[in-house]
Amino acid sequence: MPRIFAPEEIREVIEMLLFQDLDIRSVTLGISVQECASRSVYDVVECVKGKVSSYAQRLVRAVDRVENKYGVRIVTKRIALTPLSLLLEPIAVQGLEKAFEAGVEVARAVDSVARASSIDYVGGYAAFVHKGFTPGDSAVIESFPQALAETQTVASMVNLASTYTGINVDAVNIVAKKVLELAHRIPRGIGCTRFTAMANAPEDNPFIPGAHHGLGEPEAVVNVAVSGPGVIEAVIKRLGTGIDMRTLHDYVKRAAFKITRLGELIGREVAREIGVKFGIVDLSLAPSPKVGDSVAKILEAMGLEVAGAPGSIAALYILVDAVKKGGAMATSSIGGLSGAFIPVSEDWGMTQAAMRGAITVDRLEAMMSVCNTGIDMVAIPGDTPPEMIAALILDVMAVAIALDKALGVRVIPVPGAKPGDVVDFGGLLGTTVVMSIPKYDVKQFVSRGGLIPPSIKRLDKG
Amino acid sequence: MSENKALYHIYLAIYLAGAIEMAYDYSSEENLAVITVIGADRPGIVAGITQVLARHNVNIVDIAQTVVRGVFSMVMIVDLSTGDIDLPRLREELVAKGRELRVEVSVNHIAVFRAMQRV
Predict the structure, then answer these.
(1) Is the pLDDT of residue A424 over 90?
(2) B119 — contact with chain A (CB < 8 Å)?
(3) Does the pLDDT of residue B17 top 90, yes or no?
(4) Cα–Cα distance, A173 to A181 (Å, whole number)
(5) Separation between Cα atoms, residue B1 and residue B5, nearest integer Å
(6) What is the CATH T-level fold of the domain A26-462, as seen in this structure?
(7) Does CATH number 3.80.10.10 belong to domain B28-117?
(8) According to DSSP H, which parts of B24-73 are helical?
(9) A276-297 burial by CB neighbour count: b if 16+ within 10 A, else e?
(10) Can you say whether residue A179 is alpha, beta or left, with left for phi > 0 and alpha for psi between -120 and 50 degrees?
C-alpha cells in the first residue's frame, strides 16, 4: 500500500504547529440577538444574557473537543452579537439617558457571562452611522466609553464610512472625542484597545474589536481567524537570498494555502460540534507579540533591514496578494477582513521597527493602501487634541472609500505619555512605543462637519 | 512482443493505481492519528512509544524513522479503531511517555494533514 503521507509532509506540518506558532487565532461565534429588542431594559438585558450564556457554554465545549481531537491550538474564543444600537432603538426613543444606562447594563451582563465561561471577547457594542444617526446609534456612541471602562471583554466598533455613502464627518468628530474620553478612564488608555472606528466594516469579521453579527447573517455562525506569520517567515528564510520575486510570491502562496486549510478544517468542526452553520475563514495572518509571530518580520525576511523601510509597501503587497491567492484556492468560504494585519503593539516586529523610527503614522498610512489594517494599535500621546484624532480617522476613511476596502483606526491615547515612551498593555496586546503626532492646526477643516459624498464607485450600482 | 507486454503491465499498473485511489474511502480515516516523535537519539525510544500503543491495542499503519546528526525523528500513522483508547487520552499517555524518554511527542488527527497537504 502506498504511503498516505510522505514523512516530509508530516514533518512540515508538525514544524509549523510546534515551532512556527501556527494556530487558530480565534473561533468567533456570531449570534443574532435581534429578538431581544424591547422597550423594557430588564427584558433586553435578560434576553441577551440568556442567549449569550447558553451559546457560550456550547462554544467552549466545542472548542475544547476540537482542540483535543486535532491537536491544534485555538488561542481565543469570541462571541459577536447583533449591533447593540438595534436593540436599544425602542428604549432610545424613550430617552437617550435611559438607552445609555441600558447599553452599559447589557455590556456588564454580557461581560460577567463571558468571564464566567472563559470567553475572551464579546463584540457587537456597535453602531453603523456612515450616513446618519438613529437614537439607538447615538446611545451606543455616547455610552461606549463607559461600557468598555466597566467591562473587560466587551468590544466596540462604530462604522463611520462606506464606499457607497461616503464619510459621516459629524460622527467622526464625536467618536474622536469619545476615544479620548475612554482613554482617560482606564490606566494607560487600555480601554481603547477594545474600540475601533471603521470604514466598510464586514458583517462576518472574526477579529476584535470589529467583530459583530451582521444583518445578513444567519441565527448563529462560526467564523475563524488563523495565525501563521511564523510559517511564512520560515518559508522565506528557508528560500534564502537571491530567489526572484515571482518564486518568493509562489512559496508564500503555497504556505498561505496550507494555513487557510487548517482554519477551514477547524472552523467546520467547531461549527459541527455546536450545531450551527460554518461561516468564513478570514485569510489574514494575525500576528502576536510573541517572537516569531510577526508580519513585520516577514517583510524583513524578504530582505528589508527593517519593516517600514522603502520597499515595505511592495513587500507587503507581495504578502497580501499571495495570501489572498493561496487562501482563495484553499477555501470558498472567504470573508472577514482577509488582508494582512500590522497592528503595531500586537506585532513584535512592528513595535521594534517603531522603536527604531522606521514605522511611523505616515508609513502606516502608506502601507494601508495595500493591506486591510489602517492605523491599528498605535499608542499616541494622551494630550493629542480631538481634532487631530478626527483628522487621522478621516484620512483612513478616505483611503478606504477611495480604494473600496475595509480599514480601521484603533489609536490608544496614553494619558501622560510623550512620544518615545514605552507602554506595556499586557498579554496579546503587547508593548509599544508612543508615536509622535504632528502638531499642525487642522481644526478648521474637521469642524466643517457634514458628510463627505460617496465615491464615484457608487454609480456603478446604478 | 516483450515490449508490448511491458507496456501492458505499465497500463495495468496505472489503471490499478487509479482504481485504488478511486476506491480509497476518506471516511475510513476518521480513526487514524499521526504520531511524531523528535529528540536526542538514545536506546528505547521506539520501544517506549510502541509499548503504549500495544497496551491499548492500537495498530500501526505506517512508520518511518530517521536519525540525522544525533536527532531522532519518527513518524507513525496509527489506527485507533482496534484500540480501547480515544485520541485525546492516547495523546496524554504518549506525551507523558515522551517526557519520560526526554523526547517531544505530538499526536494529531490525520485530517489536519489531509487538509494541509492535499488540494
Answers:
(1) yes
(2) yes
(3) no
(4) 13
(5) 6
(6) Anaerobic Ribonucleotide-triphosphate Reductase Large Chain (3.20.70)
(7) no
(8) 45-55
(9) bebbbbbbbbbbbbeebbbbbb
(10) alpha
What letter would DSSP give residue A186? S
- Domain segments of chain B as ranges: 28-117
**Residue found by looking up cell 474622536 in the block:** A176
- Asked if the Cβ–Cβ distance from A69 to B88 is below 8 Å, we say yes
Going from N- to C-terminal start, the domains of chain A cover 26-462
Burial label for B82, CB within 10 Å (0-12, 13-18, 19+), is exposed
Closest CA to A228 of A259, A267, A262, A205: A259
Residue A204 · residue A225 · CB < 8 Å: no
H-run or E-run covering A127:
strand A121-128
The answer on pLDDT for B27 being more than 80 is: no
Residue A322, C-alpha cell as written in the block: 499571495
Considering CB atoms only, which of A5, A7, A70 is closest to B109?
A70
**Which residues share a beta bridge with B72?**
B39, B67
Q: Which of B20, B62, B104 sits opposite A3 (nearest CB)?
A: B62
Sign of CA dihedral A71, A75, A77, A83: negative
> Cα Rg for chain B, rounded, in angstroms?
19
Contact across the interface for A5 and B36, Cβ inside 8 Å: no
Residue among A52, A61, A48, A146 at smallest CA distance from A97: A146
Q: Measure the N-to-C terminal CA separation of chain B; round to a whole number of Å.
A: 40
**pLDDT band at residue A178, thresholds of 50, 70 and 90?**
very high
**Cα(A297)–Cα(B52) distance, integer angstroms:** 41
- Tell me the three cell numbers of residue A173: 468628530
Peptide bond into A209 cis (omega under 30): yes
Nearest to A13 among B61, B66, B112 (CB): B112
pLDDT band at A9 (very low <50, low <70, confident <90, very high): very high
The answer to whether A196 and A210 have CB atoms below 8 angstroms apart is yes
Q: Which residues contact A459 (CB under 8 A, 6 or more apart)?
A: none
Nearest CA to A159 out of A232, A113, A209 is that of A209
pTM: predicted TM-score of the whole model, two decimal places: 0.92
| Disruptive mutation site among A15, A70, A258 for chain B (greatest number of B CBs within 10 Å) | A70
What is the rounded average pLDDT for all residues in chain A? 96
C-beta separation of A340 from A295 below 8 A: yes
Contacts of A433 (CB under 8 A, 6+ apart): A351, A354, A355, A379, A420, A421, A422, A423
Q: By CB neighbour count within 10 A (0-12 exposed, 13-18 middle, 19+ buried), where does A135 fall?
A: middle
